[in-house]
């Protein structure tokens, strides 16, 4: 799924969304961020373990990477943070990178497994 920049631009002009609408926008943006080693977005890959929004528009993301040896482990949380700060209604982002539980193929969505030929 491609990110809809026209929709994004229109949302910039809209009033602040509620928490549920904001989380939908955040998930859409997360689906535009791809793992550096696999051709699948980080949300469907199951790298996002927890996603929370406050009424004020602050987003908390708990995520992992496919391996602690990932070459972008040090910089990828900042990449995610920067992208999410572009979402209309988001006023702050905290990204926490965790290694427990370790990521596994069971975390992937059916769409991701299909995309990687695992079904």
How would you characterize this protein structure?
- The chain is α+β, with helices and mostly antiparallel strands and 119 residues long.
- The chain contains 4 helices and 3 strands.
- The protein has helices at 5-12, 19-30, 76-84, 110-115; strands spanning 48-53, 58-63, 92-97.
- It has a 3-stranded mixed β-sheet, with helices on one face.
- β1 (48-53) and β2 form a beta hairpin.
- The longest helix has 12 residues, at 19-30.
- The chain is globular.
Q: Topology, pairings included?
A:
Elements: H1 5-12, H2 19-30, E1 48-53, E2 58-63, H3 76-84, E3 92-97, H4 110-115
Parallel strand pairs: 2-3
Antiparallel strand pairs: 1-2
Q: Please count the helical segments.
A: 4
Mean pLDDT: 90
SSE order: HHEEHEH
Shape: globular
Structural class: alpha+beta
**Mind telling me the C-alpha Rg?**
14 Å
Q: For the terminal residues, how far apart are their CA atoms? A: 19 Å
Beta fraction of the residues?
15-25%
List keywords for this structure.
alpha+beta; three-stranded mixed sheet
In brief, what are we looking at here?
This protein is about 30% helix and about 15% strand. By secondary structure, the chain is of the alpha+beta class. It has a 3-stranded mixed β-sheet, with helices on one face.
